[in-house]
Specification:
One of its GO terms (cellular component) is plasma membrane. By secondary structure, this protein is α+β, with helices and mostly antiparallel strands. Helix content is 30%, strand content 25%.
């Protein structure tokens, strides 16, 4: 005869297979093997660590390793992931970023706290910090030349269509005005060296400008991020009046397709190869001397195969000056770009992402970007 504990454990494993319960309630990771017996949901191990930090809201156990009481199993059986989402996600603004299992700890933690602890998506008034269309506060910003982080006043104004920052608190004129329609924001904790590090990019004189910021309070930083997304969402609603929310949401912010070091040579291909930090942002391949440089040293537009763009493994036989052995050649209508990777694995990864970009047909607005690159000095 099964003991009560064995029966409970078997029932928990059966409950994991129910619709909605087979992926993490918070980040969507497959095969979650932890559960909260106070919320009635299943989650992955990484999200379970965040739940452990809010014991007043969520008490968790391992489905496989811990003993389960009959009352706990019955409660979870009566709830489950789908019911919990119906309860805690009643009024999520379309622009609010829903993290996945590949996102950083900060985004996942603030999403979990917003849902269960602060109940932001049940009480709409709690969304004001990022949905009001105006936000003002101080962020630590990295100096362009000295690399020091200094406190700077930032203002996000949907009405003005801009994010501004000021070098002095009482300054009348902003140091920079970043137009909402050119802004992107992406969390970069490893690069910035702070768990709440955010990289904001915008176009200045048709070149991509990077700024790096953080705030000690994680909620504050995620509120800024979602505030930027809200401002972009409302800008795009006006710019594309017929577009649906699902059409616009992917355009609000984007993570980079890939970043890392490669070597490159110049247009004559007789100069020595230099090690550079590369960022692939949609079709723009930018390269920097240092990962935290304000401006790229150069940018390469990567179009589609229909427009004579090709990616080839290796380098032309006559190539010299590369220390790294694993080459990649990008052929564009104008010239060949030569890169070298340190390892075969890096070469394979870069080749894969370049190939995906080249295989994707170009959108009408991307032809305008391509034309700008051709006329760049």
């Amino acid at each position: 005869m099964d003991t009560e504990q064995e029966k409970n454990k078997r029932q928990m494993q059966e409950l994991m297979g129910r619709p909605g319960n087979s992926s993490c309630v918070d980040c969507g990771a497959a095969d979650p093997d932890w559960a909260s017996f106070t919320l009635g949901v299943f989650m992955c191990q990484r999200c379970s660590g965040i739940h452990r930090n809010i014991p007043q809201i969520s008490r968790i156990k391992s489905v496989m390793l811990d003993a389960w009481l009959t009352a706990e199993v019955e409660f979870i059986a009566s709830t489950g992931n789908n019911a919990a989402k119906d309860k805690y996600e009643q009024k999520i603004p379309p622009f609010y970023y829903r993290p996945t299992h590949t996102d950083c700890q900060l985004l996942r933690e603030q999403w979990i706290r917003a849902r269960y602890e602060r109940k932001e998506f049940v009480h709409v008034e709690k969304q004001e910090p990022y949905s009001a269309g105006y936000r003002e506060g101080f962020l630590w910003k990295r100096g362009r030349d000295n690399g020091q982080f200094l406190s700077r006043k930032f203002i996000l104004s949907e009405r003005e269509g801009a994010l501004k920052y000021f070098n002095k608190n009482d300054a009348r004129e902003p140091k920079a005005i970043m137009k909402i329609h050119t802004i992107n924001a992406t969390f970069q904790p490893a690069k910035i060296g702070h768990p709440h590090g955010l990289q904001i990019t915008y176009l200045k004189d048709n070149s991509t400008r990077n700024i790096f910021v953080y705030h000690e309070d994680g909620k504050e930083m995620v509120d800024w991020f979602n505030g930027i997304r809200a401002a972009r969402f409302h800008y795009l609603q006006v710019a594309f009046p017929g577009a649906s929310d699902p059409d616009l949401v992917p355009k609000l912010t984007r993570n980079y397709i890939k970043e890392g070091y490669m070597e490159k040579t110049g247009p004559k291909q007789t100069e020595g190869f230099k090690k550079r930090w590369f960022t692939l942002d949609d079709r723009r391949l930018m390269y920097f001397k240092d990962p935290m440089d304000a401006y790229a040293r150069g940018e390469v537009f990567i179009g589609s195969k229909e427009n004579s763009y090709t990616v080839l493994p290796g380098l032309p036989p006559s190539t010299q000056g590369n220390h790294w052995k694993f080459g990649i050649t990008i052929v564009t209508p104008d010239r060949k770009f030569l890169f070298a990777c340190e390892t075969e694995e890096e070469q394979r990864d870069w080749m894969g992402v370049f190939q995906r970009v080249v295989n994707r047909p170009m959108l009408p607005q991307e032809y305008a970007v391509e034309a700008h690159f051709k006329h760049k000095p």
